[in-house]
Write the structure tokens for this entry.
Amino acid sequence: MAEVFLLRWWDASPWWLLVVPLTFALIAIVVEGRRLRDRLAEVARQRDEAAAQLDRRISELFSLRELGYVVSESLELSHIVQQVARYATRFLQAGGAIVVLQDQAGAGLEVLAAEGTLSELMGQRSDGGGSLVGTSIERGRIEVAQAMPGRQFPLFAGATAASVAVVPLRLRGERIGAIAVTDRSGGPFTTEDLWLLSTVATNASVALANSRLFAIVERGRREWETAFNALHEGLAVIGPEGRIQRANSSLARLAGVPEPELIGRDFQALLFGEAEAPAALLASARRGESPAPGVVRIAPDRFLRLTVSPLAGAPRAVVALVEDVTEQQALEAQLFQNEKMAAIGQLVSGVAHELNNPLTSIAGLTELLLERGPGGDATRQHLRVIHDQADRAGRIVRNLLTFVRKGTPEPEPFDLNEVAMGTSLLIAYEVRLRDVELDTRPSEEPVMVVGDRNELQQVIVNLVTNAVQALAGLPAGRRRAITLETASDGDHARIVVRDTGDGVPAEFVPNLFTPFFTTKPAGQGTGLGLSLSYGLVQAHGGTLTYAPAPGGGAEFTVTLPRAEVPAPAQSGPSRSVLLVGDDAPAQRVLGALFAPDGLAVDTARTGDQALALAGARDYALVVADAGIAVSAGEPFVRALLRADAKWEGRLITIGGRSAADGPHRVSRPFDLRRLRALADRLMADAAGVSTPPPEPAATDRA
């Protein structure tokens, strides 16, 4: 029944009108489903790629940030370039990376950092010609060479690579180097890779700019601090409260405290105590004024000069310059004393000559009247007084003339030991009458000087006589002793007269050698003894000084130039000097240095002329400029030493830098005293005369 029903329905119903559309609909659904499935797969793939790209960009951003932190950790150039090379290798998954920079002179390129397969290029130098690094720097753009079968690209300094990316480094618009990476493991360099490398280069350029700026600032700071501490004068910046904010090493030396302890100390209290002058100068500078420098006496024998000025841009802050002028004050005092003595000498000379005539008449007439005999005792006594006083006045005049007389009459070499011993015998009787011990201590070796024996004997007599008179007033029981000793010290000879008295009061010391100044009672002294001795010693080229004696008393020291014991005549080089150099003023100075001693001075302007003179004459000394050369181009000094080895001990080179320029060298600007001392030693050695080593110059000791 069912089959019959279906057949009837099939024949009676339009079934095909339903089946065909449904079939097409099903086919369309299947096709659209497949297309949607493919689209979803594509979207998923793009999503995964976008996620991967995003992850990579985030990673790159974090890496760039990390690079920024790393390169900012230090401003040292070596640290910066090493970190840049390391991170560039990691960012781009490269086999190696280098950072190339121009040297400071701009004469070439140098690899300052290398990583991975390029590490062997570290330190390599090149002009960059023909390489991708040089091309990138020259053109100022990124250069890329992708991998090609069997192809190697020139990288730098002869090195090659299969694939290379180079980006230039810029500093304020100037191309200063490049970063290069090679052999990326992930395939060819992409646009994103080049963008990342360019970003690394930008960060690196900023870091390098900071590094170079820091180097400039640091170099300036070191130069400033070097100059600041090189000043011999003390320099300090003083705050509004009077405390030291900054100071150099010279100020620490003047203050006698370690340099780190200066900061925060009270400037005036540290250096000047309670003196009023420094306080007034500092107050004036705080008001914006620039007062004149002031000299402050901080101890009986020490003086400091203080110069202050307001510090610009810092209210009430002061810059102070402190200079030790103790030696300068002493020299000024000595100069003033010399000028005063010269003025007194001119006055005394005229007065003494004018007094000679009347004194001669008075003494002669009184002596004539005394010889005639008759006359009362009172008259003869009056005449005797007149004669004695005229004779005394005559002795004063003679002493005055001796005091102002310049030069040393009939100079001759003699031994101070003989003069001291002879003088002690001469005055021994008077010393014994005053119950004074005289201890004469001559030197164990001859103490030779050149001068007038009688005048130096008069100096010793004056000093010993003054000592005897000083001891005469001592109370009973006090030891009365005088020590007279001679000694030699290097180039100086000394006579020392020391007593056991009370010494000279400090207030009298500045006027001790002034004519007519005396501490003795009226009628017991003219005040000319010490000034006369002072003048005689000066005429011999020496000095007469006073100092308190150890243990009490007075100590007078005569210092004279020492003369060497004449050596027997020996055969040796002539007394002549050869000066070699093309600087005419320097040649004149050297000629003036040697000519006064009777040395024959020859000069040569060229090396060939000097060689000819040295071959024709046996010079005692050759003083040559290290820059003079012979015609063949060889330095004259080396040509001279090569010609004859004897010149090694007779040659002084001015401006030499090494042992090849001679064993005896004097740097420019040369010190005349030091040069002359060296010359004297070399000439003495050449002549076979033993001499003590010269005393170093003050600048050498400092």
